[in-house]
Amino acid sequence: xxxxxxxxxxxxxxxxxxxxxxxxxxxxxxxxxxxxxxxxxxxxxxxxxxxxxxxxxxxxxxxxxxxxxxxxxxxxxxxxxxxxxxxxxxxxxxxxxxxxxxxxxxxx
Length: 108
Fold this sequence. Notes:
Elements: E1 4-5, E2 12-13, H1 20-37, H2 48-60, E3 74-77, E4 92-95, H3 97-103
Antiparallel strand pairs: 1-2, 3-4
């Protein structure tokens, strides 16, 4: 089996683009960076008011209001919080995960 040189530390290894110590260290750095840069759900505005309104919306309408095919398991902000929206029930609609997450930060 041919040996390759690690692109980071220049050690010889057998498979992949990096040796095992460098690959696992890189994965740890990426994971830590993700958690260091993203604020908590509470800090992003998903507070008690949102949780109560979400439960109300999902109990009233169990089907996704975007695709009308899958069961709703999330509450979608019509106007996103980052664009001045609120957690009021009038700004929320039931949505399935793929529809809600696919929409991102866009307006309707």
